[in-house]
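Lecture notes, part 5. Sequence design as translation. It can be helpful to think of inverse folding as translation between two languages: the language of shapes and the language of residues. The source text, in structure tokens, appears below.
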């Protein structure tokens, strides 16, 4: 196997290529539903309704309690993953208070994870 580091360690990019690489893939703003989702998420974090260090705070209890043990285990694992991304959103929001490109991507990640999971298991999360 070639050692690509050695092959390209002294490579210099043209400034116009470097400028293009530094631009986000999408300069679009958040979709309306994602913007509302972010606002809801931030509000729940600020009101302490949602604790990113406690995945139990993410559950819609009436729905969660009706799930089978197997479905609850799946919900628990997904909640842990969701909370990891939510912690990143919270940290970036505290630093910037803007809908940065990074926050947009993280919101999209949470949105997709939550939506796909809830399609199969019902409205088990409060966000």
């Amino acid at each position: 196997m070639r050692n690509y580091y050695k092959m390209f360690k002294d490579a210099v990019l043209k400034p116009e290529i470097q400028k293009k690489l530094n631009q986000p893939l999408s300069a679009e703003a958040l979709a309306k539903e994602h913007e509302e989702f972010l606002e809801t998420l931030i509000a729940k974090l600020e009101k302490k309704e949602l604790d990113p260090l406690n995945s139990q705070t993410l559950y819609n209890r009436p729905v969660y309690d009706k799930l089978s043990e197997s479905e609850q285990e799946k919900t628990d694992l997904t909640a842990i993953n969701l909370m990891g991304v939510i912690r990143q959103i919270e940290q970036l929001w505290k630093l910037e208070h803007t809908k940065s490109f990074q926050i947009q991507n993280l919101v999209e990640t949470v949105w997709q994870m939550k939506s796909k999971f809830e399609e199969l298991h019902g409205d088990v999360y409060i966000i």
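The translated text above is only one of many valid answers, since several sequences can fold into similar shapes. Residues 10 and 61 are 57 Å apart (CA to CA).
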